[in-house]
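Hi team, as promised in this morning's meeting, here are the two structures we talked about. I've kept the exact order from the run log so nobody has to guess. The first one is mostly here for context; it's the second one we should focus on when we meet again. Sequence first, then the predicted structure tokens.
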Amino acid sequence: MSIMANQHQAINLSQGFPEFDTPAFLKDKINQAINEGKNQYSPSNGLPELLTQIAEMVHRQYQTDLAVEQKLDGLNNITITSGATEALWVAIQTLVRQNDEVIIFDPAYDSYEPAIELAGGKCRHIALDAPSYTINWALVEQTINAKTRAIIINSPHNPTGSILSQSDLSTLQALVEKYNLYVISDEVYEHMTFDGLRHESVLRYPELFKRAFVVSSFGKTFHCTGWKMGYCAAPNKLTSEFRKIHQYVTFSTFTPAQIAIAQMLKEQSSHVTSLASFYQQKRDVLINALKYSRFTILPSKGTYFLLLDYSAISELNDREFCHWLTKEVGVAAIPLSPFYQAEQRLNYHQNNKVIRLCFAKNDDTLFQAAEILCQL
């Protein structure tokens, strides 16, 4: 869709990347590291100073009520990866064996299923329905069988903007303990929750974390998606197995960026805590600008995505509508159907007319796009 947007000079609200720049402090620090010659391999697991700063951030964000002895140990529980997608891949390869089954929730990030299948496993898809996209945990339990190895969750959720509640995490923990399962928790939008809602990280639940990989992204947090910097937090035994695979995937990740991010976390931690209000303002700008359009606006509780129902505008399916919107109208959006498994897409096309917009853009871009969309 970004290629199509460029070809047709459309305003690009499709692919999920920020239009605004990386913080100046972070750019200064990465340039400083490069100019000081810190350009060689880092330790495979990550620079110790970065691992320590991540653990401190996690403790501030999620573990303030835990005993000191339970505090996450950066050197033993965190691994730096070349993006969150690598962390997801390695976590899946660590867990999934031939003929294992993994439960995922559609619409889902499109890297999950290929990684599971290449590990010899099989996905069991559970569809989430508009407008709330909440998980039916009774259906999850009915789906669990002797082959079920793991459940992948994503909160805040791409592409829907929904988030999991404390009740969701408690129910998940009960199922994991009851059926001896593992969890991969994709939390790359963890710092972007709105309207005072709390992100319920797996890191808040010590018993659940014992059987979990938690994946995060610096690219999302610091507006530097092209740096491909992520990390995975896991208990000691799972981290040990994770690292055995990670060393043969990328070995180590871009050293100057690790140095810069460690300093950012240490000296500019307010960036992380202010991210929710920053993106809530962006969300509200777009929602208010679309208030008099013919779109139905679905709730966005987190991420930097907003869903629109276009039922009142067109009978086209979501792929066709997004192509038309880009080529003829001049605004690029993402269809939701590709986030569902192939078998579900026909049913999805018949019953849903929903597209995704990215609001990680400058206000002028959002106003310009909304003005065009309001004319439909």
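And here is the second protein, the one for discussion:
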Amino acid sequence: MKKLQLIAGTLALTLLAGCGVTADPDDVAYQTADLKRDSEIVQVDGQSVDTEEYLFWLLNAISQQKYYGKLRDDTAWEESLSADGTPTGDTLKADALETAKLYRVIETKAGEQGVVLTEEQHKQIEDELAAVAEQLGGEDQLQAWLDARCISREGFTQLNQVYYLNQGLREKLEQAGELTVSDADISDYLDQQGIYAAKHILISTRHISADGQSYEDFTDEEKAQAMEKAEDLRRQLKEAGDSEAKFDELMNEYSEDGRGEDGALYYPQGYTYIYAGQMVPEFEEGAKALAVGEVSEPIETDYGYHIILRIAVDQEQAKQECNADYKFNQLTQKWLDEAQVKTTKAYDELDPKAFYDRLQSVLDAREAARASASPAASEAPVESPAESQPAASPAETASAGG
């Protein structure tokens, strides 16, 4: 799920390219997309998303792709950015729409809970913008910086406010007990994430090669002997009622799962927190087929024969991951899944590349005019977003708990 972060002073977007156009010099959105900045382009749960906000997120989506080596030239725009072959323009528009949806949903939910910004938070946003202006060389340069992102100062300030609304919303829900984690929540989390725990006795079917850098498989005879040994250990466990104490005894004596210089196993307590995909498929499938406390028959993998004991997952680690932040992100995702989005004709007809091309033309024309009017100023132009990494922003794709 996308994340909300304070963006004043940190966001760098790629500058865009295109053909010249005459329009209201104070409305870059109109110059680049033939849409007024305050016109509605989509609705989220009945709440309007205006053009300048959506174009801001569209630019961020484009800059992310360019930073990671995509959209290098006109030909690259014709290649799909997704494995399913979705056209590049549609992928970029969908990415921007998801971010706009997130911001509108948080803003709406915060309003429903009576969450508002404090004076200190308002001041923090203004201080961030002032820092950007100082870094760029003044208010005029700040305005150029915002124009390059197709957004007004008011619109940019509003986006930063949502970051604090998100914080306040989370705090209010936590105080109300809605983010309290129960044992059932932890159990569901472990199931959803495919997390499990196990001990195992490994009887290897390979040995280190002469070069000491690789492995060689056992001969058929050696492999048969390894299987016989594994079956004998399994027999001993059955005779002991598959007790964990007997398992530990045999594991510490016979397992070939890796030992230190003192001969002790690296993991005498077993693997107490295993993520899905962490182990080879045969091991994972065999372990998950067991109930806690149950022991498997020997299971063959490329490493050898494993006798697996399913154990309980480390609950303390589970609580560290399945916490109030996780529950809040899950709740936010639920809101996003349930959100009703209505696009306009303007959204449907918007061509990201045409918009991108036209913005660069506008910016190039402005830079040329500035240089002509003040040759000295042209020696120290405003830093081009194209020269910078797209910084961590509200549109950054990340894990829900990040």
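Starting points for discussion:
Strands lie at 40-44, 47-50, 196-204, 206-208, 215-217, 271-274, 299-301, 304-311, 341-343.
The chain has two domains: 28-180+323-387, 194-318.
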